[in-house]
Amino acid sequence: MKENIRMTIPGRVTASGTRRYREKHQKYCASNFFHAAGELITSSIGIGTLINQMDEEINELMTQAIAESVRRGVNLIDTSISYGYQQAERSIGEAIYRLLESGEISRDELIICTKGGVLPHPENNLADWFQHHYVEPSNSRINMTDIAASRYCIHPEYLQDQLNRSLTNLGLQTIDVYYIHNPERQLLEIAPDIFYSKLRAAFEVMEDAVDAGKIAAYGLATWEGFRVPPTSREHLDLAKIKSIAQEVAGNKQDRFRFIQFPLNMVMLEALLSSTQEIAGQKVPILEAAYRLGMIPVASNSIYQGQIAGKIPEHIATALSDKLWTDCQRALQYTRSTPGIATALVGMKGIKHIEENLALKTISSLEINKFQEITHAIVQVLKSMQIDDTSWTFDLSKLSYSKNN
After folding, report:
1. Contact of 119 with 80, CB cutoff 8 Å
2. What is the pTM of this model?
3. Which domains occur in the chain, in start order?
4. CA distances, 117 to each of 79, 149, 174 (Å)
């Protein structure tokens, strides 16, 4: 497999580049296929690259799938150094290189996102690998106590190392969005005050990386942190985290701009559970993100494909009579969620690309229809006894929904 890219690709995403990309593809898409993400424009469907093992064949298939997705209207690519133990990043780098070499895209049209903080190594000997590479070197200040839940680390030196490796894997001069990956896992082993102190040190690394041109913005990619109630050990307080970023940035605007969390037709907490507090009011993470000026990205948009064959007919019909699979319907729901910049979905072959991107010619749901379908989904989940009693937020109260 390719260990690096043949050249370092200069530049980063820009507002003008993403507008240019939209203009090139808009005539093939519904009018609301592209969303605003701050000053940037992103496709409402982004390509995710989560995969455990990769070989030469899978590596090439992923490279081709990424390139083909970009050709067909997807300009946000999401990965992690831990996906495929660094190989997913290398596939993305190769795909970008081919697209640039052929003149099909410009670097400033693409939003490239990756993550650091999860050990990118097979799980059978993680502790030994971590100790050998990051603890034993004489100049290291990292200790074994800096690794949480056997595979998570946000020590500043470790994050700096991982960022540099990701830049090499991707072959990029600048990564557009760099996420700290599942930081809430730290809270399983340390007290909240220690955690937030560690997060402050990590944000200092992120702000320095922006100043050095290595990244353009940073964020947190989570699984539990923003969905669980404040009583949970893994709960993350977005307002507090944003204030830490502002303190670290000092007299300039902080670059903590993005958050990522699961959202789909079964995992509705980001939309309906009031897990955050803003100005004394309890709100869901989507509302909190809007009020704090953050850009939310949805992961696990189709519930890892487990939704297939399980969407009731009345909900399927309400989503759109132009869709022919439940995975399409699930993706239609997630990417229509008010406030979401993009919904991530894995696409590892032409069949997946064609299935998912059939949605680009179909309008996202209007807010009234989205509310109606959400109510129907909640009723179905309750009847299946898999509902969450905290799903009590009234969608009409969402301030950002009035602006979509």
Report:
1. no
2. 0.95
3. 15-403 (3.20.20.100)
4. 13, 12, 18
